[in-house]
Amino acid sequence: MSQGIGYYLPDVSEEFVTLKFYDRLHGYLWVFPRPDHSSAGICATLGALPVSGLRGLMDDFLKSRYPAAAVEAAERYAALIPGAPQDPGSERLQGDGWALIGDAARLVDPLTREGIYYAMISGDLLAEALCRGRPEQYTDAWADQGARELSWAAAHGNGFFDARFIERLVFLAAASPAIARVLSDVITGRQTYRTLKRRLLLNVPLVAAQLVRRAVTAPLRRRDS
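Above: the chain's sequence. Below: its structure in token form.
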């Protein structure tokens, strides 16, 4: 389980998404822009910090970046966020006359805490099983579609939130459009974790060329400025 808290910031809308990571904290801070406001929040493993500690990190960041009036007018929210288990077979998804989908079934990425994508997939799979008159096929369908993906993520949380890994990932994403596209696809669910390594290896020549180009052009840009 994770604890998530945050604000809806009125009249704050930007053209980019902000993510901030903290050393030794399995979670992250975000600011997601919307047409007439922004959703700003922070999440971490339940019990890692008290709610007051998370709110302190959130408030310090917001006050350093946005007008005080926007922060004071913000609507607060909080939520508990489930995470998928490492053993995909440890949770029952259905029984006699009942079935669970989405957050209720812990079908949430333990790394990104993204659950909407998996809620939609699991809802579709259950609906298809019901339409076929074979509701018992839902569990097997989910095992084929997403169970291994989320269990892989659950097993790799420690490495993902290591500060050295995050710093290298941010550097590579900034330096290489190819890595940025891969990262975008991971966050939105278009790129599975199980095939991520293969895709990265296929992109190695392109990424190397982009890093070399960045290293060569950086001194020229500094001299021009």
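The beta strands are 2-10, 18-20, 27-33, 37-45, 75-81, 94-95, 98-99.
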